[in-house]
Amino acid sequence: MIAISNHQINKTLSWWTGALLLCASLTACSSDSTIQEEDVDDGSVPMQFSQAVMSAPVRRAASTTNYLTQGFLVSCWKGFGSAKKSVVMDKYEVKYKTDPWANLSKWDYVGSTTEGYRKTQIERYWDSNAFPYRFYAISPCPAADSIDKYFTLTDTELVIPTTYVYQTCNNGVLTAGAEPYMPAQVECPNGSNEQDVDLLNKKVISKDRTQNGATTKYDRYVALPFHHLTSKVRFAIYNNYGKETPADFHLYNIRVKVVSDNFITEGYGYTADLANSDMLHGAFTTTTKAANDSQRLLLQTDDSKQGDLNKAIDREHAYYCECKDGMLQIPQTGVRMTISFDVYGLDYKSDFTSTDGHIVYDKATKTIHYTDIAIKDDKNNIDSFNWESNNIYTYVLKVSEFYPLTIDFSAELSPWTNVYGNIETNLEQ
Asked: What 3-state DSSP class applies to 95?
């Protein structure tokens, strides 16, 4: 017999009707906790996401409003890693709901098909005897009619049947690229609201209880930091020229291209083995490789976009080649690149060409042309690079001498702090 608390008796008749109809349609209701009654151990503490509830409807700038309507898809287990492990949420849709009459905004998963969910989803309560809890999620939430047919989100496997596409940059204008979904993977080891762990970066999740100027009313809630399945790359140049520089000293006509074979521009059908790894260390079922040189050209500028080398004199003021935020790339290994650029302003005595032909100076235009200079990490003596999910790779070129050309290359690995395409968030990021 299932114990019914006073809190549960006060549930609406529509909730009971949905739950009973769902259970009656099956031969047994004991093995799948998504169709059992709520947990009764801590029936006064419902499971909520993020800030859980706002004191007023949250408003966002027009450019981010749509992200709030996309929601996320989540699966949850209690007793994870034990013999008592059971499903709490089996691909629940979580929607951002605003009730202007109640002056309330919240992330919510409780509802029925009449309320826009693809199935009846009942409220869950924390079971104090069943920690740890695990939450696996993807954002935004896929279309309801495709979730069960195409998407897998279990404790052993993640399957996202969609296409990720790289980006290139032309004079500061990015191609569209594609990063359709981002994952989150969180463990709640105990009842403390301050000890949840982001399993994708192995850090304890910091929860700001007054995030966005509103205070959550719940003592126990889950924040889901979403991460990127793609990489980003960007390029910066600065001048460390020791001599006096001319008043007009500009950098332009930049071209960064990939010169290695098998450069991947598109990945389809992402799958991760969650029994042995995490959501960021999966693979694409099918990849598309660059078919020609134009597809290997990552970045280019012309003479209408000029970096001022009298301003770009250190790392802090480096010229980011009209693409400071970087370009989405498909995670891959063994990428080799070259850079070409022109420098105007230096007044040498005569024309010259380097013995390898990569440097040409034209005295008439006071321009040095650098062509296909290999990008490398001088410190580690490598000229090919691996790109992993959820990282930004910054390639910094420090020019110490222009002829003979002396460039100090350094490749930086940075955490991805700007989350594009994500819900603009009450979710901790």
From this structure: strand
Chain-centroid distance of CA 66 in Å reads 17
How far is it, in rounded angstroms, from Cα 338 to Cα 123?
55
Q: What is the C-alpha separation between 319 and 313, in angstroms, rounded?
A: 9
Helix residue ranges, H only, 97-139: none
Residues 380-404, mean pLDDT to the nearest whole number: 93
**Which among 78, 117, 118 has a CA at the least distance from the CA of 222?**
78
Q: Which residue bears the tokens 């951002």?
A: 96
What's residue 198's pLDDT? 93
Could you report how far apart the first and last alpha carbons of the chain are, in Å?
A: 42
User: Apex CA 322: angle with CA 304 and CA 424, to 5°?
Assistant: 140
Do residues 52 and 218 lie in contact, with contact meaning Cβ atoms separated by under 8 Å?
A: yes
Per-residue burial over 369-382, b = 16 or more CB atoms within 10 Å of its CB, e = otherwise: bbbebebbeeeeee
**What gap in Å lies between CA 167 and CA 232, rounded to an integer?**
9
Measured at the CA of 227, the angle between CA 89 and CA 230, to 5 degrees, comes to 125
pLDDT bucket at 103, cuts 50 / 70 / 90: confident
Q: Which pTM was predicted?
A: 0.84
The helix, strand and coil proportions of the chain, stated in percent and rounded to the nearest 5, come to 10, 40, 50
Work out the number of other CB atoms within 10 angstroms of the CB of residue 132.
17
